[in-house]
Design goal:
The chain has one domain: Flavodoxin domain (Rossmann fold, 3-Layer(aba) Sandwich), CATH 3.40.50.360. Helix content is about 45%, strand content about 20%. The protein has helices at about 15-30, 50-55, 65-75, 90-100, 135-140, 140-155, 175-194, and strands at about 1-5, 35-40, 75-85, 105-110, 115, 120-130, 160-165. Helix 1 (about 15-30) links the parallel strand 1 and strand 2. The protein starts with a strand and ends with a helix. The structure holds flavin mononucleotide. Flavin mononucleotide binds near residues 15, 86, 128, 129 and 171. Flavin mononucleotide binds next to helix 1.
Length: about 190
């Protein structure tokens, strides 16, 4: 299976990168082809501009967007790894969606209404956050995040959401807790793509 891993974090020492490393190793060990797009490392420009929209409407999608769209087209499955920042995804990932998930590429409106054009692909999402897990679960924040990203972005674009896993209290987590989280990452990847 061809698997695209998208990382949204500026710090290579972050827990986000630790998760992404386990995802990559687990997929490679299972024989999958893996391509990693570390949005900060590649310096992805997340700001949708009027020049972008003019070019896209004219059928001349800017090169940096076309490159990312080609990776998505290539992939059978996508894993997205990001921390929760201000109850959403980091701006670089939101801007990646803004610029790459364009009309005519990720979705379109036809005679039967809206069509998700990335259908046939799965997406697996890992999100870490600072609040303890039970706090975000009990206040409905996990449901809110699932609604806005799983429903509003991934399923909207036709992707099948395999799972969206949250890890709480990451900044204060013990080494043991972190090891447990990473073991859970490995098991989740193996369960869906092993
Ligand atoms: C800009 C910023 C915004 C944040 N907003 C939230 C938030 O809304 N909710 C939360 O629980 N944690 C929040 N955090 C904490 C991060 O989610 C947490 O530090 C991160 O998941 C730890 O993983 P990392 O090592 O990959 O950064 C925020 C952190 C930063 C830097």
């Amino acid at each position: 299976m061809k698997h695209l891993v998208i990382i949204a974090h500026h710090n290579a020492e972050s827990f986000t990168h630790a998760i992404a490393g386990i995802v990559q190793n687990t997929l490679s060990a299972a024989g999958h082809e893996v391509v990693v797009r570390d949005l900060n490392a590649i310096g992805f420009n997340p700001v949708l501009s009027s020049a972008d929209t003019v070019a896209i409407r004219a059928g001349q999608t800017p090169e940096d967007i076309r490159v990312e769209q080609a990776h998505l087209t290539w992939a059978d499955a996508v894993t997205v790894v990001h921390p929760v920042w201000w109850t959403g995804m980091p701006a670089i990932l939101k801007g990646y969606i803004d610029r790459v998930f364009t009309y005519g590429f990720a979705y379109a409106y036809g005679p039967n209404g809206r069509e998700g054009l990335l259908a046939g692909r799965k997406v697996l999402v890992f999100s870490s956050h600072g609040h303890p897990d039970f706090v975000y679960r009990d206040m409905g924040m996990h449901d809110a995040l699932r609604l806005t990203s799983d429903e509003g972005i991934w399923r909207f674009s036709g992707l099948e959401v395999a799972d969206h896993v949250f890890f709480g209290a990451v900044p204060s987590a013990s080494a043991e807790d972190r090891a447990g989280y990473l073991a859970q990452v490995k098991q989740t990847v193996q369960r869906h793509f092993g």
